[in-house]
């Protein structure tokens, strides 16, 4: 397999052949039915008895069996051709995308896959930020080689499968009912077993799990619409959660997969506690999507999955076409069912506020649960010690990929993208922002934050002037103690315990701080207090909130001057009007 052969291949011919065999199989089925009912069945039910009748009926039955076997053989040829065509199409799409990237980057590609490029200029040789052409060339060569290898493999497997039917026709095995039944049972078992049986060429030809979202998006857009629909219907779980896939395609695939997961979990008798919670959540999301049908803005199911505690993301407005996009990450104790309730409401309310702030701009607001949030019992100074950092780091990696996917699938000029984290979710956002490559956000909003893992806003990669913090004075999470303060909690707990719940936690932390002592009064469990002057972000105005833990979730309830400006300020940031945000003094 070489580049011209694959680049100029026309898989539509195989699709045409598949359609022809499907039509032939359907016509043959009609002929077989006519024979079975009009000849074999009529003789068998005619009342004819005797030796001659028995011989005739046996002969007719043998012919019926041969016709049935031949129909089963014919019916399996079309799927083989179609799967081969799809595999060739996917490989060709990968090749053409790589060739387009090579051309855009000034690389020359030979027919055998060799890559060359002009020598660097004097300026490039002395520029430390100049792109590494050798590395780029190697990556392009590997992509081209993978595409050619996949096409050659698909060609080999498809030919081998078709050769079986040719041999059956030559030897007569295709007319043997026993052989046909055995192969049919084998094919059914293979289809039900994703870990065995015949190789799935289409699944193998999709971009790898580590493929960047830009590659996934380019691959998908290169497919004809009818093939896109075929893949969505056949592989919804593989496509719906792929970062870089267009939002409408993700939504369609994920709705199919959601229905399948609900049906699967509902049919099982031995559900674990978390499976029961996921089933409850998935059903709630189904109901939410039904309720949102036909309303504005439209809702899109961008993520759905049964991994871990469950995955889900709902967007209000299409992120691929919106001028402003915000992706909100919730925190502690969030379950899938929350994505159909309070967290979806928050995304919807933020959409409305941003839209009202600037109706001339289109908005998409997303609630994203792409990781397992820590599940803690009660509110205490050490609850984030129980939560740990691992889940935020894992979630940060997934969130980074999700945002990269939003960039890759967006149409036209890049959207103004805001990353928003609440509670432990703000720590997750902070971890994503500090990963290699950062996050492709223009602004970062942190509310009710116990810290981000950073000591300064400038470490989050968007510039300190584009990091925004909302911290209610009565929000205990934004006051939880640092590691040093926690050492004195045991002593302070006796006094702090006089006050119940969160206030006792804050009191204990305060007393523990005085006993244990530490150098920075603005240090929280996960680093510098984002609301402090040392952190260096913009602190926007929010109300103090009610006494107790309710203030930790009050940020979306504030909209006017009487109740604070939290939601209004977030809407201004999301819509690109940060210059109009009302500020608040640092701690």
UniProtKB/TrEMBL annotation:
For this UniProt record, give its keywords in alphabetical order, as a comma-separated list.
Hydrolase
Record Gene3D superfamilies: PPE superfamily (1.20.1260.20)
Cite the SUPFAM superfamilies for this sequence: alpha/beta-Hydrolases
Cytoplasm recorded as keyword: no
Q: Membrane-spanning residues where?
A: none
Q: Hydrolase as a keyword?
A: yes
> Biased-composition ranges for Basic and acidic residues?
123-138
Location of the region described as Disordered in the Swiss-Prot/TrEMBL record:
109-138
In alphabetical order, the GO MF annotations are:
hydrolase activity
Any Pfam family hit: Abhydrolase_8
* Residues making up the signal peptide according to the UniProt record: none
Residue ranges constituting the DUF1023 domain according to the UniProt record: 308-482
Tell me what this protein is called.
Alpha/beta hydrolase family protein
Provide the species name: Kitasatospora cineracea
Task: Supply the source organism's classification.
Answer: Bacteria, Bacillati, Actinomycetota, Actinomycetes, Kitasatosporales
